[in-house]
Amino acid sequence: EIAACPNLKVIGKHGVGVDAIDVAAATAAGIAVESTPGANAESVADLAVGFALALIRNVVPITLALRDGRAVEPHLKIGWDLGELPAGIVGYGAVGRAVGRRLVGGFGTPTIAYSPGRTGSRPDAGIDFAPSLAALLGQSRIVFLHMPLTSATRGIIDAAALASLPRGSYLVNCARGGIVDEAALAEALSSGHLAGAASDVFAVEPPTADNPLFREPHFLAMPHLGASTNGGLERVGTEIAQKVLAVIAARS
Question: pTM of the entire structure?
Answer without folding.
Answer: 0.86
